[in-house]
Amino acid sequence: MFLNGLALSAFSQTTVYRDTIPVYEFGAKLENPWAGGINFSSFSSVDLNLDGKKDIVAFDKMSPSGFGKLRAYLNVGSAGIVAYKHAPKYEVLIPKVEDWALFIDYDNDAKADLFTYTTGGIKVYKNVSTVSTFSFVLTKSLIVSNYNPTGSPNISNIYCNSVALPGIADIDGDGDLDILTYSVFGVKIEYHKNMSMELFGHSDSLRYIFQDNCWGDIQETTCAVYLNQCPYPKLYQEIINSSKVAHAGSCIMCIDRDGDGDQDAILGDVSCSEVFYIENTGSSSNAHISDTTAMFPNYPIRSSINRIKLNSYPCTYYLDIDNDGFKDLLASPNTVAGAENFQSVWYYKNTSTTPTVNFSFQKKNFLQDGMIELGEGSYPVLFDADSDGKKDLIIGNLGYYNAGTNSSKIAYYRNIGTLVTPSFSLMTRDYQGLSIYGLYSVAPTFGDIDGDGDKDLIIGQSNGQLAFFENTASLGLPASFSTPPTLFYEGIDVGSFAFPQIYDVDKNGLLDLVIGSSNGRLAQYRNVGTSTSAIFSLSNNFFGNVDVKHYGSLTGFSTPFMYEDAGVTKMIVGSEFGNLFYYTNIDGNISGAFNRVDTNLFKINEGVRCSPFYEDVNNDGGRDLVLGNYAGGVAFFNSANVNSVGLFDMVFENSIKVFPNPVKDELYINFDSSTIECLTYTIIDVLGNEIYKKKSFNKNIRIQTSDFANGIYFLSIYTDQNNQIYQSKIIFD
What we know:
- By secondary structure, the chain is an all-beta fold.
- Helix content is about 0%, strand content about 35%.
- It is globular, with a radius of gyration of 27 Å.
């Protein structure tokens, strides 16, 4: 239940703003320290602000939960200069996407449109941005093709599964975008020809026919490409054989490597560690692949030096990175299973000045080298590690990819600034060498467990257990944690993925434990010992009735942060879907159900499995928010709007009209925006009771209110992604 009456007062005290505290690594200042990390991404060129320069939008698959994150980066470089600035305000303006996203201009209006996955294939959003607005409108809910163009029409969807990436390019050179994709049954590439130019003389109609069931005469399977696999003449329709195994997933990137006017391609496969380049020696109308290599981009010379090999399912992207007018190459994993996550964006510069390409390896961590990047997962806390009175940044993670597995570590960013102007510098990625103990998915929390005046360390692990490290340093000296640790501390086991916080829950002067886990709930372990000898006993394994699982999900990955505000205990809980849950009514009610005031606090979502730490960083009296996520990055939000950058730019505010107010019999809501398909409208009374809820694709609705009692109510509007975009007090008169 969303208690808007409470939420309104709470929001006035808990406003935070996106900020950019300086962060340094190895003496160099990070360009985008709080950009949130990158794991397994696709990349596209998009002019976000219509300044004539191609910016970058990445879609990061992020985690096994299947819910990715769009990241936008403004191009602030010049000719030959690579420079990008994280631009989160554009991310909320892009339609909700699932599994994959590619931005390609299909109608030749110089604005990249959005192709993305939908059940059964591909849907398309047209880019209708203007100089003052960045927006999209759904133009094709599912792309179809005529599978029998020479006879009675057989219209069906162009198949592309959720883990694949189609090849979308002008295959035949006529000016419109064709599609290459693998069929639902088989390992051959289908070619669907766009008939827009032939039928209408322009490129903006996505009208397709099935042109070729074996484009290039190849078959790709078991991490190999086999040539000369198809008979002549080509068949228009493949005979479906029920014994065939459905193709699990492949990516196709079209590229005219040799400038001869026909499309070659780079293929990746979900079961393979490298890409395959295929050379087209046919024509634009009749492709024939005559050569293939896994040594790309070293072609025609075959060399293993700096070839694209990324452990699991690498895919490639063709865009101009350095503003020299020639497209470069990026490679990144397109899977979350066993793939590189720390150096997972390989950048190859095109050094050619002709229509041919010549890719030269530059780095393995494009964009990642400008941000806090910890591989998979980030669990940030603030802790004065060097006892200088300033709060340092300590970040645990699930792991850096290493030889087929992840190695979990804790990073230490020392505060090298002042009490009021903090600045962080990376001291080590393996704080005090704690990785030697082989703990996996390390979530740290600090507190004085033994009452000796310094803070000890407890680490949650993926197995649901805790490890305890006593701080044995003398007062005033940098923390020093005893080794070996106490493993399986106090016999505590919450099942899987423990996310602990040390906090005096019952305010009796003894520090207790609140532990989140993968089940989305919280467990409370009460300290039944003394201030110098803690003993933890399970008090409640459904603490506060908190459950942050999304509807229909089996996991929730709850990460709690309890705090005191003006003597009142409150709690923020991170979740698997990236939303922050906010709870009150805790004091005097620790055995009862807490009030869930908000399910999307601050209206932010920085990515799945978010992990909050909400504490005053700069000693200005207001709590700031440090927020980790599964992409291995961190976001920082200041309690003061010092940079005049709002946390969530209310881009929709002027598009929503609610009238009349006060209202007698009918309330009207008009929403003028094409960027959102579905909205949820709720009305809550002052007691927190939900009296109206409606989910609708209609942006102009009328609500009959004549049966509602007179009084004050609260209207909220949510997107389909559960982002709250509007909240207002309504008076029924």
